Amino acid sequence: MMELLSLSLLFLGIYGLVTKHHILKMIVSLNVMETGLNLFITTLGYQEGQIAPILSSQFPSSALNFVDPLPQSLVLTSIVIGVGTTAVALAYAIKIFKDHGCLDLEKIEGRL
Amino acid sequence: MMNLNPVLTIALPLILAFTKIMYRRIANLFLIVGSLINIFVVVFLKEGQYLMGGYRPPFGIILQVDTYALYSLLVLNVLFAALMLLVTKKAENLTSSSLIALAALNGLILTGDLFNLFVFLEIATIAALILVSSIKKYHQAFNYMVAGAIGSTFYLLGLGLLYKQYGTLNMARMHELMAASPSGSAVAVILIFIGLAVEIKLMPFSSWAAGVLKNADEWIGPMIGAIYGGVMMIVVGRLFTDIFVMDAKVRLMLSLLTLITLVGGEAAAFQSRKVREVLLYSGVAQAGLEALLILNGYPAIGFILVLSNMTAKYVMFLLAGYMAEEAGGDDFDRLTGVFRSNPVHGFAFTVAGLSLAGLPLFFGFIVKLNLLYNLMLSHSYWLPALILSASLVEGIYMLRMILGLWRLPEGHRGGLQVRILGSSHRRKYAVYTISMVLSLALILFGLAPDNALSIARRARGADTDGKPLVLITMKGGIGQ
């Protein structure tokens, strides 16, 4: 169920990226897409009844009652990369607005 | 003989990229010295697996140096360093991004881990986005960013599905498990191919390239059009030859995409009347051909075609960027006869163009001749016919463009006043030397191709009596 929900979010983001022309809406779509993907990868490592892979006083040994930690570490990396991409996208948005006075890609390309 | 660790080719540019921030005045020096040191490191690399942090595969990340990686690294680092020697004022602000790009591209070739490959892919893309912003076409760069983001999402989605099915990200382990049980992995493999298709500019995922490369200067053209395109194709060669196991239906589906690219790219290039646009679409068509060969069991010829095209496109984009800058555009009409005033550049551009089109005497011809010979031997006839037709079309538009650039307009006396290089002597001699050396290499390998062909066969396992080639292994690293 969670897999399907996260995939729906991912494809919703792709739909937004493909159909919207406003740059800020596209950046939001980009983030929705990345969130859907990150959720999907996290669900891959999920196992019913298992706990987070963190050693604590309550769970001092790395027994087999942990969920798979690898997808979580992948998602951490993916989140960091997503932040970088969003920062670059917003920097472009500022530059585009300074150059063209609007953020609508269709209008900008129509003028050129 | 000295044996250096391949991680240096990634770590050194990264260290220099961040150290440079404190020494802005000598930024260019960092760029040039960093890329030259990387060539030195590559020359002294020894084939083998290198563990990162002492963790053995499949739990740890490994870097893999085999013949394929070694020669790919050599070509990449030489072309990159050559471009850095041409560094201009404009590029000074891009020193850090360029060094990060170099680190990521080296990592893409070396890594033996599929997620690590994703990380390098993203770093390379973000560095490319910053480099591309130097041409000031921000909305085109934004389109590139969106295409790249969708591509990497597809790659990661495919990777997630593969991990779910096989429980590993190590390339060698993935290959072993896929070979034992390939069913159920088709969707993941297709998603990964689509993700990489954005970077290698396959149609219909190549629309971003038109915006970027049509406006590319002498810096961005060779970097994105030749170096990035070539390295991404080398990655495709690694994944779809050594790692993934595909059934015939998936292979056919992906091959159709490459065929559409080959035909569409040649048609678009034929119609174009601008130098960089011709190079862009010709590059798209060549990418289709290279991917077609890799997917259909001709990895050795595919590999050497990638390296040969990378070199030829590098020279052409470099000179096209200078021509466009000096002439204020790159329409055929505006540049008619430009090589009369710039014969050295004309010679280099002509050699690279003819090699790209696969005409006799040049390296591209030898590669295509070998390809057709091998295809005929395997009783495949539709593919040679298609490749011959595409080469014919490419030969026609390439000759039309080259002749136009040499021919003076009617009634015109003497050379045109467009000087490709402006007034800087350093740039002038650097461009002379680099374009001439690379074009002479294309002639030299065309006249004596045996060594290059034998390296390509060794790199892609054509000399292993038909046994599948998996050079990435699960064994411990050097010194283990």
Overview of this structure, please?
Chain A has a single domain, classed as Helix Hairpins (Orthogonal Bundle), CATH 1.10.287. Chain A contains four helices and no strands. Chain A has helices at 2-19, 23-44, 70-100, 105-111. Chain A is mainly alpha-helical. In chain A, helix 1 (2-19) packs antiparallel against helix 2 (23-44) and helix 2 packs antiparallel against helix 3. Helix content of chain A is 70%, strand content 0%. Mean pLDDT of chain B is 81; it is low at 462-480. Chain B has one domain (8-459). The two termini of chain B are 19 Å apart. Chain B has a two-stranded antiparallel ribbon with strand order 1-2. The relative contact order of chain B is 0.10. Chain B contains 20 helices and two strands. With 480 residues, chain B is an all-alpha fold. At the A-B interface, helix 1, helix 2, helix 3 and helix 4 of A face helix 5 and helix 6 of B.
Describe the secondary structure blueprint for this structure.
The complex is a heterodimer of chains A (112) and B (480).
Chain A (H helix, E strand, L loop, with lengths): L1 H18 L3 H22 L25 H31 L4 H7 L1
Chain B lengths: L7 H12 L7 H17 L4 E4 L10 E4 L1 H19 L9 H16 L3 H19 L5 H29 L4 H10 L5 H15 L6 H7 L6 H24 L4 H24 L3 H21 L3 H29 L4 H4 L2 H4 L1 H15 L5 H15 L4 H25 L18 H23 L2 H10 L21
Antiparallel strand pairs in B: 1-2
Task: For the structure shown, list the relevant keywords.
heterodimer; A: 112 residues; mainly alpha; Helix Hairpins; 4 helices; elongated; B: 480 residues; two-stranded antiparallel ribbon; 2% strand; globular; disordered C terminus
